[in-house]
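Entry 14. Structure prediction run on the chain below.
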Amino acid sequence: MTYCLGIKTRDGLIGLSDGRITSGSQLSSARKVTMMGSGSDRFFIMNSGLRSVRDKTLAYLRRDMQKRRGESYSTMLDAVSAFTACLRQVAAEDKESLEASKLHFNLHAIVGGQLAEDREPYMFLVYPEGNWIEVDERTPYLSIGATAYGKPILDRALTYGTDMQTALKLAYLSFDSTRFSSNDVGFPIDMVSYHAESRSWRQSNYDYDDLSEQRQWWNRNLTELARRMPDGPWVETLVPEEMRPRRIAEETA
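Output returned:
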């Protein structure tokens, strides 16, 4: 399992992927986000699913890009179409034998960037069959892998108008919620950002100790906010009467 998240806001794009690889009882780490192209004409691809399918698909995509003699795709639609063509080719070659070995052909991908003829950044979620959907302003993120745990905070707090600094925090918190509840997701994490106005990319990776301050702050304040939340109607029926004055005393201390 993995956790990959792509966010599109008014400022640009954010990509986050965990680096944990599980195989039976074995744990290792590997980069799950790949930058393709050069200069400002770049785009990222994040994957979940069989590593062998991912590597072969990306190898075919690199071969296709090399045939273009250094020229990048003109638009992100061209790029995602090339990626899906490579994915379908791998499926035609390997899907039958993988399924005969009881392995699912389950590659999912998030592809995002802005190329020379694009009016704005674009981001797509690609399914194993090669079809895709595009992120929109109403739900400005796409996630693959163990998606359930990090979804609530994104649905509650992230909008298309969220500034990039806040969106980066929400991306991390969605990962941290997933990491906390899923043993198959963990550090290190890779993060990329694309600033639309300057058409510039930035990329970095972080390990467990790098984000200890943020993790501790969130745990401490989340607990404190729950304590300070107004009492609900359950107090009168579910809290013993002798405990109620103590709670009031604690809040006024």
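Helices lie at 51-66, 76-100, 151-157, 164-181, 212-228, 234-238, 244-252.
Filed with the rest of this week's runs.
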